[in-house]
Amino acid sequence: MLLSPQQTIALEETANDIRESVIEMLVAAGSGHTAGPLGMADIFTVLYFHTLRFDPGNPAWEDRDRVLLSNGHICPILYAAMAYAGYFPKELLLTLRKFGSPLQGHPHREFLPSLETSSGPLGQGLSQAVGMAIADKMRGKTGDRRIYCLMSDGELEEGETWEAAMLGGKHALNNLAAVIDRNSIQIDGDTEDVMPLEPLADKWRAFNWHVLEIDGHNLEAIAAAFHEAKSIYNKPTMIIAHTIPGKGVVEFERDYEWHGKPPNKEQAAMALAELRALGEKIRERAQS
Amino acid sequence: MSANTGELSHGGLNASLRLNAHLFDDGVEKIAIRKGFGDGLVLAGEADPRVVVLSADLTESAQAEAFKKKFPDRFVELGVAEQNMAAVASGMAAMGKIPFITSYAMFSPGRNWEQIRTTVCYNDRPVKIAGSHAGVSVGPDGGTHQAIEDIAITRVIPRMTVICPCDAIEARKATLAAASTGTPVYLRLARNATPVITTDDTPFRIGEAQIVWQPSSSASVGVIATGALLHKALIAARALSESGIEVEVMNLATIKPLDEAAIVALAKRTGRIVTVEEHQIAAGMGSAVAECLVTKHPVPMRFIGVRDRFGQSGTPEELIEYYGMGSDSIVAAVHDILEG
Fold first, then answer.
1. Which CATH code of 3.20.20.20, 3.40.50.2000, 3.40.225.10, 3.40.50.970 fits the domain covering A5-287?
2. Does the distance separating the beta carbons of B83 and A160 come in below 8 Å?
3. Does ipTM surpass 0.90 in this model?
4. Candidates A66, A109, A127, partner chain B, best to mutate (most B CBs within 10 A)
5. From CA B99, how far away is CA B93, in angstroms rounded?
6. Residues of A in contact with B81 (CB under 8 A)
7. Total number of domains in chain B
8. Are B252 and B186 in a shared domain?
9. C-alpha–C-alpha distance, residues A234 and A162, integer Å
10. CA-based, 20 to 30 A from B169: which of A31, A33, A88, B90?
11. Domain CATH number, residue B221
């Protein structure tokens, strides 16, 4: 086991806190995406509180791991994870999408320099991650900083993703691990209705990637997947993480209507009550 | 015929720029502008180990071959994937490299415009976009391969520098200079051999326009040219001078940032401006000049360029003439503006 029971429960608690912040951010913003950020909370939590090497006091530290969020529209979860990790005060989270805020509606490095990239237009993150990984291979030394790219399933419909997939396979980029948020929804409906992606794992294997399929809410499985990726020496790794969109708030779960809208005040109050109750249970388990 | 180097009775070449003394000769040396880029790329690679080159299956024709041979470890072949190429270059720049992405202008910055906007310029990454085969002078390949919209789509993006060299020597210098700006740069390059106008001794700085043809007395028209058509503008200037009409000719190699001071000064000296570019008139270099002058010193203008049409097959000379960008067209535009 990579995670001790105490570590696991601490991560659960953090993930739950981060979900609460996401709801608070969205209702304050009055616009934004709900389902994706909630669904990816567990993966971001493991990344920022277990896997990644970084120094929030020195965001430009050269040997830090790099995280690229390709589907920029789920940025509330990135911002929340960064705030909890110490990059900036949590109070700033409530300025999401407001004029002059570092937390732009889609990530913008100019406003928040600790971001590794700006994103929003889909299908471009993996290319940049591949470029970073190739550049590091060129350095001539086996620097152990790693490149992580977080992607959505819907954006796999962008052709550029597969251009990047080919190049990543060609260069055997073992310093690169990507995660697909396989929540099976996109704006127009279920991915398999809009544009079937299956057999998805086979597709990535065919492009010479090492492919893992995990439950995107199982913290131990998430940590294990990132760990396994480090041990693959001749391929980039693609982690297909099966997630529940809206995870944590039963009323939001698995409903694509929640892809692109924020909760109103009443819905937010209900969601926060649910998450706080869940948090209480986690803390009770922690003490028992 | 020898060069007119500035006799008092006629206009002449600006001696301080040490231009090619044989540029009006029938047998003037011709080199492809893209070739100068290829030479500059090797020099840039020698000068800075951070320089890397990306290719999308056009390594030889987009002139990355010499760099690839000299620095194989700093060369990345991506296959026919220009959108990926721009974003991969952004990622490499984020890790400290200075990437040059090479293809035809129609595909880069044509096809990958949004990747350039978002991952390069919005992200503020110093990626250099080298677009070869720009303009109708691509010739026989036809309209699909003739980029005549590329100045418009690059100059409109914040942070982008846009350079359109007039010959192979200027292209070499521009490439070397582009490597060290720390910003995104678009280098607009032509396919075919064109007259060599400058020499190794001609100064070049990004953002500095040059007066290449000076009048003996006061000039009544300022002709602003960019790219290989500068040669047509010089031929037109000489012909006009012989017929008693004096013009000044400016080489506007850097279209963005625009040398506004030099352009306004030219407009003040001459009172009339004719722009010359191998590009759509809409939103091109002439439009950039007009945007400047209409607010700072409005003067009558005429625009030489492609008038809202696509290209087609033919020889470069045939196409330049057909689309109204030859020296006779420039002479006619000067007469037209003088007649008001």
1. 3.40.50.970
2. yes
3. yes
4. A127
5. 6
6. 160, 163, 166-167
7. 2
8. no
9. 19
10. B90
11. 3.40.50.920
Over the stretch A28-82, which tens digit does the pLDDT of each residue have? 999 999 999 999 999 999 999 999 999 999 999 999 999 999 999 999 999 999 9
Domain limits for position B176: 30-195
A124: nearest CB among B76, B79, B87: B87
> Cβ separation of B119 and A117 shorter than 8 Å?
yes
Q: Which residues of B are catalytic?
A: 82
Nearest chain B residue to A161, by CA: B84
User: Of the residues B150, B178, B195, which one is the last residue of a structural domain?
Assistant: B195
How far apart are the CA of A98 and the nearest CA of chain B, in angstroms? 19
The pLDDT confidence band at residue A288, using thresholds 50, 70 and 90, is: confident
Q: How far is B172 from chain A (nearest CA, A)?
A: 25
Closest Cα in chain B, distance from residue A285 (Å): 43
pTM: 0.96
Subunit contact A131:B79, Cβ cutoff 8 A = no
